[in-house]
């Protein structure tokens, strides 16, 4: 069984109710967006995968610091009111990881490690030293760099949201579509050139959303004709 996992970083800007609504919306999209990979609803129903949305809360309430909260569905039957069983409808699980401040002792080792990795106030060298000194963990530099990229990605999403507000939602969506299209074109083109396969086979293997398939194929074929 495959599981779709999404990781989000959340600062202090949202009220609890707004954040919970955002979590519900994102989790619902992780489920519903799977429809774009199938041609019929019945095919989707046969292949629908479980999703887990992990929210790393960087500024939680003091009472929630250094905790992990798991939100999932259970089934309750009136025929057996004292029993709860995991629900077969649980396709959208949500996990909150609440980071604590650095001047407090971490009660949970995993949270302490995450706290160091996702700190915005320390550079890679300091993170490396903190992990080695406190937890005797030596991470490859590539992993440390990836945590920095995740922070940068969160900032990019915030900038994109600002762009949508300033220039209109439609312009923001057009920009997002074009960036994704350019990325898919380059990926397919490189595979075709390096592995001597057809663009159609790669597009099929990558399971591109339908709206990208024809534009990607046309662009890749045009680039190949110029290449040769």
What's this model, at a glance?
The protein has 228 residues and is an alpha/beta fold. The protein contains 8 helices and 6 strands.
Explain what the structure shows.
The chain has helices at 16-32, 41-47, 109-117, 124-135, 141-167, 169-195, 199-206, 210-227; strands spanning 3-10, 50-57, 67-71, 74-77, 80-86, 92-98. The radius of gyration is 22 Å and the shape is globular. A hairpin with a 2-residue loop joins strand 4 (74-77) and strand 5 (80-86). The chain has eight helices and six strands. The model is unreliable at 102-106 (pLDDT under 50).
What are the main properties of this structure?
two-stranded antiparallel ribbon, 228 residues, alpha/beta, 4-stranded mixed β-sheet
Reading the helices and strands in chain order gives EHHEEEEEHHHHHH
Question: What is the strand content?
Answer: 15-25%
Q: How confident overall, as mean pLDDT? A: 78
User: How many structural domains are formed by the residues?
Assistant: 3
Low-pLDDT runs: 102-106
Distance between the ends: 42 Å
Number of strands: 6
Structural class: alpha/beta
SS element count, helices: 8
- Summarize the main sheet: 4 strands, mixed
Can you tell me the overall shape?
globular
Q: Give the spatial strand order of the biggest sheet.
A: 1-2-6-3
Q: Tell me roughly what share of residues is in helical segments.
A: 40-55%
